[in-house]
Amino acid sequence: MRVAVLRGGSSLEHVVSLRSAARVEDALRELEHEPIGIDVGRDLVQRLRSECPDVVFIALHGPGGEDGTVQELLEILDLPYTGPGVAACALCMDKIAAKHEMRAAELPTPDWAAFNATAFRELGAADTLEEIEERLGFPLVIKPASQGSSLGVEFASSRDAVPEALVAAFSYDDRVLLERYVKGKELAVSVLADQALPVVEAIPREEDFFNFEARYEIGRTEYVCPADLADEDTHLVQELAARTYETLGCTGFARVDLILGDDGPQVLEVNAIPGLTDTSLFPMAAEAAGIDFAQLVARILATPQTRPANEATLPA
Ligand SMILES: Nc1ncnc2c1ncn2[C@@H]1O[C@H](COP(=O)(O)OP(=O)(O)O)[C@@H](O)[C@H]1O
Ligand SMILES: [Mg+2]
Predict the structure, then answer these.
(1) Which of 34, 105, 112, 158 is the most buried (most CB within 10 A)?
(2) Does 257 qualify as catalytic in the annotation?
(3) Whose CA is nearest to atom 11 of ligand 1?
């Protein structure tokens, strides 16, 4: 097959995307497909029209590539593509909307409050901070509604630290959430075609504990897969991850981030297009399940998304 691999993009995770794409292209060659690397930009539609690929592998992360934008274009062009569809991508990229869906489905996610910049500027939202702080307690986690790789995720240990953390989060997105801090094991559960893979645990260095961005630097966090958990906890988090994936409408593959605290697991977010680099968690989980990277790419390619059938027809 001729497989277009979409890479780069304008999000802050551009470099991660290039690394994911390079690895996917190597795997495609190993599988005897023909990869066509496409750096996404203004000529994306033209490139896709002239290349006429059989399928499109989306190796983009963050807003633009992972939020349904590119997926929508591919549906307009009637090109099958990998990973979740438009609606699931849009939902997963929006942590606030995703948390509302989770809560409605009774999936555990940390309590939160959300704002947009307009509420702050024009409606006096800052005056509610006291109530929020009282309800959620300290430490408080403050993060932009979109983004990934811990960008803009801040931690406030007291009331004094909240304004600065909010400003930092607002520099990434005009909507932010304040979330209850959950103490526990940080886990990632990759789901491949509805099947939860072995659990990965992230163990940060002590000094990085509250510096979520620093943890992403290579070597600063240790990853263990399969995570050292009791069997019942493993099943519990895998089952929760699979239900969350389904609730948010994911298909193909995705990765669910959660924290296993004393009161059970809490889902933080779902990544619709998780990293596929040689240090990424999704390939690590697949490897632990006996699926090497080329097989993983083959599995992802096996069930591409296609444009949904036209509007439902009304009964006669
Ligand atoms: N409510 C929380 N309690 C404790 N740690 C959190 C919480 N929210 C986020 N974190 C930490 O920040 C990291 C990134 O947060 P996450 O919600 O997964 O956003 P991102 O899209 O940036 O990955 C998590 O992996 C975790 O280490
Ligand atoms: Mg995350």
Answers:
(1) 112
(2) yes
(3) 212
Contact 35, 5 (CB under 8 A): yes
**Residue 271: active-site member:** yes
Q: CB under 8 Å to 118, separation ≥6 — which residues? A: 174
State residue 2's pLDDT score.
Answer: 98
d(CA 299, CA 283): 12
pLDDT attached to residue 204: 85
The whole-chain average pLDDT of the chain stands at 93
Which among 218, 103, 213, 215 is positioned nearest to 147, based on CA atoms?
213
Q: Is 177 in the pocket of ligand 1 (CB under 6 A)?
A: no
Cβ–Cβ < 8 Å for 181, 155:
yes
Pocket test for ligand 1, best of 153, 205, 216, 262 (most atoms within 8 A of CB): 153
**Euclidean distance between CA atoms 248 and 268, whole angstroms:** 13
Count CB neighbours of 137 within 10 A: 11
Classify 300 as helix, strand or coil. Answer: helix
Residue type, 154: E
Would you state the structure tokens that stand for residue 241, as one six-digit string?
A: 């991850």
pLDDT tens sequence across 169-228: 999 999 999 999 999 999 999 999 989 999 999 998 877 766 767 766 767 889 999 999
